[in-house]
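F-box domain-containing protein
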Amino acid sequence: MAECFPLLEQLDISYTGCENYDSYVDGVEALSLALIKLRKVNLSGFPINNQSLFHLLNNCRYLEEIIMFWCEGITSVGLASALRDKPTLRSLSFSFGNREMFNTAQLIDSLVSLKDLSSLVLNFLNISDELLYSVAREGLPLTRLVLHCCTGHSYAGIFYLLSKCQRFRHLELFKTDFLNDQHVVQLSSFLGDLVSINLNYCKELTYAALFALVRNCPSLSEIKMQNIGGKIVGNSDSLVEFGVYPQLKSLYLGNSWLSDEIISMVASIFPNLQLLDLESRNHISEGICEVLRKCCKIKHLNLAYCCKVNLLGMNFVVPNLEVLNLSCTKVDDETLYVISKSCRGLLQLLLEACNGVTEKGVKHVLENCTLLRDHGYMLHTARR
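Structure:
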C-alpha cells in the first residue's frame, strides 16, 4: 500500500479484524518509513504494540493527528515513550484496551510536552486531577477536550483546567457523574468561545444547566444533554425570563423529562433550531406541532420512541424539514397524509416499527413528497 500511495497524508486502518500482533510490527515500521508525508492516522482496534507505535511517531515527522481507541497492545509506558517531544502533534484521541491508569508521571510529562496540542480526546480512562492541573499549568493551546466516561478526577481538576485555558470551542464531559447545575453555571463563565458541548448522561444536571450555558456562552450553537437527571425547574411561565437565544442551532434532549408546555416554550427561546433530537420523550404529544410552527428553520427532527407524539395538528407548511425520524411511534396513515401536505421537502423519513402505517400511507407520502421519492430515502418496517 505504501509503495502504491507514497504521498498519502491520511490513513485509516481502524478495526481491520486483525489479531496477530507480531506479524504487524515490521509492517508498521516499513509503512512509517514510506509514508513520509503522513499527517493523520486512525489505528483504533489495530494490532499495534508499543514498539510499532514508537516507530510510527518517530518516523512520520509531519504527523499531526493520531486516533487510537481500544489498542490493547499499547501500555501507558509505551504511549509515554512514543509521545515524548513530538512538536507537530496537534490532536490525540486515545483509550487503552482496559481502564488502565492514564495519570502516571511519565505519561503526564509526555502529554504536556506536546506544545501545539489543540485537541485531546480520552475515552474510558482513569485519569486524575494532577493530569488536568499539569495541562492547565503548561498552557497547552487546547480548543477541544473530550473526557468520555473517564473516572479518577474531580470537579476541582475540571474547574482549574477550564479557568486557565479559556479558548475551548468543543467540550465533552460525557457521563461525568459529579457534575451538577452549579458546577455548569461556574464553568460557563470560562467558555465564551464555546461552540458545542456534550453533557450526555450527566445524571445530576437539570435544565437549569442548559439555560446557564446559552446565557453565558454567546457562540454556543450545539448542546447535547441527553439522559440527564432532573425535571426542569418551574413551569413555562418561569421560562419567559430566559429571553431568546437565536445562536443555538442543534439541541439534543433525548430520553429526559419534558412536557408539551415546556417544549413549546423551549422552541420560543431557541427559534433558529435546525436540528432537534427528542428521542424517547414519552410526555410529548401535540406540543411538537408548536415546535415546528415556531422553529421554521428545522431541518432534522428526531422523534423516535416518542410513543405519544401527535402530528395531526400540523396544518401549516414546514418548509425546511429534510429528515424526520418517527420510528417506534404510533403514527398511522392519517399522520402520513398530514406530513405529505406540510413537509414537501423531506429527503429522509424513518418509520421503523410503525405498525399503524400501511403501504397505502407510504404510497401517498411518496406521491406527494417528490424529493423524497426521487432523491431521498424512506424506511418502513412493522414490529414483529
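Residues 311-384 form one domain.
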